[in-house]
Design brief:
Elements: E1 3-7, H1 15-23, E2 28-32, H2 35-41, E3 48-51, H3 58-64, E4 69-72, H4 80-90, E5 95-99, H5 106-118, E6 124-129, E7 132-144, E8 150-154, E9 161-165, E10 174-175, E11 183-187, E12 192-207, H6 208-213
Parallel strand pairs: 1-2, 1-5, 2-3, 3-4, 5-6
Antiparallel strand pairs: 6-7, 7-12, 8-11, 8-12, 9-10, 9-12
């Protein structure tokens, strides 16, 4: 399995978080344009820097020019994060972890959440924002959990139906359309939950620190 971390130009994570996931096999770092400045501050070496290069600093570009692959793509019909995902797919990566994709601009955050859905069929994507770990799912899945762990589930339309096993608040062929109904702060009863998702994709959001402490990756 080829895994990469995509570091965008939003609020950067702690270096310890990057190190944790590098030990979990996410050993390639792709920076989305200005995300390279965050890498420079954390003394991380990007394997590639991808984007239109309109937000990376001159300092970071000079620092990394000779040691990282620089991929300049001027097209404006996709974002730098999308460019990075397309690059990762072209390099046959199986999984991508998005970090630094949220921050003080809600439109960028909303866009990047949409990107998770857009690329769902092409590459396995997870997203980290502050202490939240988001992953999209469909079909029949089993998820390792910690007893008492908070699990939040979100759907997007009435066609997507969810049935759960192992959650305190049981779901049986339930739709969770965005803006109408949700399963925020549900609770895992044991060390595993099962979800049956028919007709679409849902987001599952969990406590990142708890997952890291209990090695749930």
């Amino acid at each position: 399995m080829k895994k990469c971390i995509i570091l965008a130009n939003g609020k950067p994570p702690k270096k310890s978080l990057i190190s944790f996931f590098q030990k979990k096999g996410f050993n390639k770092l792709i920076c989305a344009d200005g995300g390279a400045d965050s890498a420079l501050k954390m003394r991380l070496l990007p394997d590639a820097i991808v984007g239109d290069l309109d937000s990376i600093s001159t300092k970071a570009l000079k620092e990394f020019r000779s040691v990282s692959k620089i991929v300049r793509l001027k097209r404006q019909n996709d974002t730098d994060v999308e460019k990075c995902l397309k690059y990762a797919i072209s390099k046959n990566f199986d999984e991508a972890l998005l970090v630094g994709v949220t921050g003080n601009r809600l439109d960028h955050t909303f866009c990047n959440l949409g990107i998770v859905l857009k690329f769902f069929q092409q590459i396995n994507i997870s997203l980290i924002a502050e202490n939240s770990f988001l992953k999209p799912y469909n079909g029949n899945v089993k998820i390792k959990t910690a007893p008492g762990e908070t699990i939040s589930l979100y759907g997007f339309n009435n066609k997507t139906k969810i049935t759960s096993k192992g959650l305190k608040y049981h779901l049986k062929d339930v739709a969770l359309p965005f803006g109408e109904r949700e399963s925020t702060s549900n609770i895992a009863k044991g060390d595993e939950i099962e979800l049956k998702i028919i007709g679409g994709v849902i987001f599952v959001i969990r406590d990142l620190n708890l997952m890291m402490a209990n090695d749930l990756f």
